[in-house]
Each structure stands twice: as C-alpha cells, then as structure tokens.
Amino acid sequence: MRVWRLAWNRPNALAAFTPGNGAGRFNPPGVGVIYTSTTLPLAVLEVMAHWEEYFNFEGYVTCTADLPDDLNVEHLPEGFPVTDRERCREYGLSWHEESRAAALVVPSVLMPEVCGERNVILNPAHPDFDRLLPSLRLHGPFSLDHRILGALRTPN
What we know:
Layout: E1 2-8, H1 13-16, E2 34-37, H2 40-48, E3 60-66, E4 73-75, H3 85-97, E5 103-107, E6 118-122, E7 137-141, H4 146-153
Parallel strand pairs: 4-5
Antiparallel strand pairs: 1-3, 2-6, 3-7, 5-6
C-alpha cells in the first residue's frame, strides 16, 4: 500500500517522515506518530483542514512510502466513533504504547467512509517501521492550481 504525506519545509524523505510532538485525532501531545493518507488528494485536504487561512502551499513537499504487503497493519474497528476525539486518542495511545502494529488505518473524518479514503498513522517506534525506510520518497514541491486556492479566499 502506498501512503502519501505533505510535509512542510523538509529537505529529504527521511525528514518528511519524522514525527512531531503535537496532538492529533489519534495521539495525545508527546506521542510521536506520522499521519499519512492513502491518496494525495486526501493528504491535501487533511493539511488544509488544519489551516487557519488558505494562502498557498509554498514550502510543502509531496512524499510517499510503500508499506510492504506483509507489514503488520491494524484497522480501526468498523463503526468506531471517529468523531469522539477522546476515544480516538485513547485508542491511538493504546495502539502506540502496546506497539500492536507499525501502521493504523483509520477513516478520514473529512471524507465519508463510503469513498474508501483512509488515513494511515505510522508508528516510528514500532520495530517494523524501519522496513519502510527504503521506500521513502520525496517527490518535490507541491503546488495546487491557483483557481482552487482563489475559490477558498472568495467570501460566500
């Protein structure tokens, strides 16, 4: 499975797949995980959902990693309440601390589940994470058509 990531101001692929310490839907502050998506468009939407204002993607780079077919991957149970941040963080923390899998596949809150769009959270502390390193790719600067960003700046 190929996963996509937009990273800001990273010089190489390894740096782009370095976890931060901030909180996310499936991790509390200080628990370093790496959020990726199964498609580039979803990765773009996930970044944009966390912006306060939409100016441009200057400084962002497109990155991919290929998860080996036999990599231990956990899927969030069907019907899990992904809009409940507290339960999501508890689940993600338990997944991370118990090192149950190198990757956790979760539905995107931004896209309906019926679309098949998923986010894949990577656990760099898992022993199998190193198996991803040879596949990390930095594809270069990301850009988005000016018409899309222009439409976002236009008041309703």
